[in-house]
Design brief:
The protein is α+β, with helices and mostly antiparallel strands and 456 residues long. The protein has three domains: 2-69 and 430-453; 92-282, Ribonuclease H-like superfamily/Ribonuclease H (Nucleotidyltransferase, domain 5); 285-388, RRM (RNA recognition motif) domain (Alpha-Beta Plaits, 2-Layer Sandwich). It has helices spanning 2-23, 32-39, 54-61, 68-78, 80-85, 103-106, 158-161, 175-185, 197-204, 214-217, 230-238, 251-268, 335-344, 384-388, 417-453; strands at residues 96-97, 112-122, 127-136, 141-146, 153-155, 191-194, 206-207, 211-213, 288-295, 314-315, 325-331, 348-351, 357-363, 371-377, 396-401, 407-412. The strands form four sheets. Strands 2, 3, 4, 5, 6 and 8 form a six-stranded mixed β-sheet that branches. Strand 3 (127-136) and strand 4 (141-146) form a beta hairpin. The model is unreliable at 383-415 (pLDDT under 50).
């Protein structure tokens, strides 16, 4: 009986190897013939898998286990958030795109780096990065840098970022310097890891193709669109939090935590759904509106004037640490009420740097002069692009430098040709990773049977 099982399992393994040959798949040691040349003294002359030992077949198929990193890249790309959140305006001024080099060579890269950023709110209503940390797979620091936002800051969010104005005194590193460092670190197909990674990429204005977002690779029972906090994921997956309640973020610790989550996923799989009863559900930010760039002389209680007719709205208390302005939140009964109140606010509709809707509002208090502040949604609106798009808009125009060194405008019909090429490459990657993943599942099943039935 044992010999029959051994023979059957070997035939299955041989057929799996033949599948890799037909599909042109390559593991960490290359294709089947490449593997034979390096790992078997008989060479590649006897290439028929059935004529090789069961142990050799298993050794070859195990060279595909390192492809699990690509599986996590694919999980990120297939997540509903990817299409909405990772479509960056790379054509805008100030954005950079990393270069993979030779595409299929880049896809072989197993190098992973994790990133985390801290952002502050600026007086113009935009966010700016003030710290960037990057670690490698061994959790060693590759980049730990404070960044000068190069414009007036309205709120350092010190209780969250752990950074205040004194920390940035004398800092000369600019966003362009950070982009230059990241382009070098992310060359040759490096996989970038992060939690809500799209926020970090928007902060540094870098468009990178190979990404793993820890928000996208873990799934929760009955909550397919649930976006857990980094602290929540670490509690559930790693067994300990990143920080205690009330502590500010530590940029370096957060980058290391994201990498630990991915390494845990690679090592243990965590294919099982996470039970939501074991998860601390976050407070619903979508039931709030952010009020920022508020002149410090305006009392928080006067902000109720922004929402006439809304009796059940609470203005959170705010510590006015800034010299000229401060930030707070208006809290409503439900997300629907918050959306309705936002719609009623009179103001110029724009987006912040993370794509969230906001309005520039004029507020007049009695006989005092009118002042300007911002009312912003706390989360991205799925209909942002629809609300802001002009159906009769001209094609996107983009600045370029002509031969004389002066700026000129060139028309770019969206989507551009290179965008289509990126989408094609992504589809090729998805298809190849699907083949590899199916191969890995079959191998795991065969190994499970063999481990139960055969002696080691």
């Amino acid at each position: 009986m044992g010999k029959a099982i051994d023979r059957a399992s070997k035939e299955v393994l041989a057929e799996m190897v033949r599948l890799t040959q037909r599909q042109g798949l390559k593991g960490a040691a290359g294709g089947w013939k490449d593997f034979l040349q390096c790992h078997d003294k008989k060479g590649s002359g006897l290439s028929d898998p059935i004529r090789r030992s069961r142990e050799l077949l298993v050794d070859f198929l195990q060279t595909f286990t390192k492809e699990q990193q690509k599986r996590l890249v694919r999980l990120t790309m297939e997540h509903p958030k990817y299409t909405k959140e990772f479509c960056f305006p790379f054509y805008d001024e100030g954005w950079v795109t990393t270069h993979l080099g030779e595409f299929f060579e880049a896809m072989k890269s197993e190098t992973m780096l994790a990133i985390d950023c801290e952002m502050v709110l600026c007086e113009d209503g935009t966010e700016a990065v003030v710290k960037v940390c990057v670690v490698d797979q061994d959790l060693q620091v590759k980049l730990d840098q404070l960044v000068n936002p190069m414009k007036p800051v309205a709120d350092y969010r010190t209780n969250i970022t752990g950074i205040d104005s004194k920390d940035l005194e004398g800092v000369t590193c600019s966003l362009a310097d950070i982009q230059k460092s990241l382009k070098k670190l992310l060359s040759h197909g490096t996989i970038l890891v992060g939690h809500s990674l799209y926020n970090d990429l928007r902060a540094v204005k870098v468009d990178h193709l190979r990404v793993i977002d820890t928000v996208c690779i873990f799934k929760f029972v009955d909550l397919p669109n649930f976006s857990p906090s980094l602290n929540t994921l670490c509690k559930v997956v790693l067994g300990f939090p990143v920080r205690n309640d009330g502590e500010p973020h530590n940029c370096l610790n957060d980058a290391q935590a994201a990498m630990k989550l991915v390494l845990a996923k690679l090592e243990h799989g965590y294919e099982d759904l996470i039970v939501t009863t074991d998860v601390e559900m976050p407070r619903c930010d979508s039931a709030k509106l952010l009020l920022h760039n508020i002149p410090v002389e305006i009392p928080a209680q006067e902000l109720h004037l922004l929402f006439p007719g809304e009796d059940d709205v609470t203005i959170e208390s705010a510590t006015k640490q800034r010299v000229e302005s401060y930030t707070t939140c208006a809290v409503f009964r439900s997300p629907a009420q918050a959306d309705k109140a936002f719609d009623k606010v009179n103001g110029n509709l724009t987006k912040d740097s993370a794509g969230r809707l906001q309005k520039s509002v004029s507020l007049k208090l009695g006989s005092k002069k009118t002042t300007q502040l911002y009312v912003r949604k706390m989360t991205n609106d799925p209909d942002v692009s629809k609300m802001l798009r002009d159906e009769n808009a001209e094609p996107l125009q983009q600045q370029a430098i002509d031969g004389n060194g002066s700026k000129r405008l060139k028309t770019c019909s969206y989507p551009c040709d290179h965008v289509k090429e990126i989408e094609k490459l992504r589809e090729d990657l998805r298809r190849r990773e699907e083949e590899i993943f199916n191969l890995q599942k079959a191998l795991a099943q065969v190994k499970s049977i063999c481990d139960r039935e055969l002696p080691c």
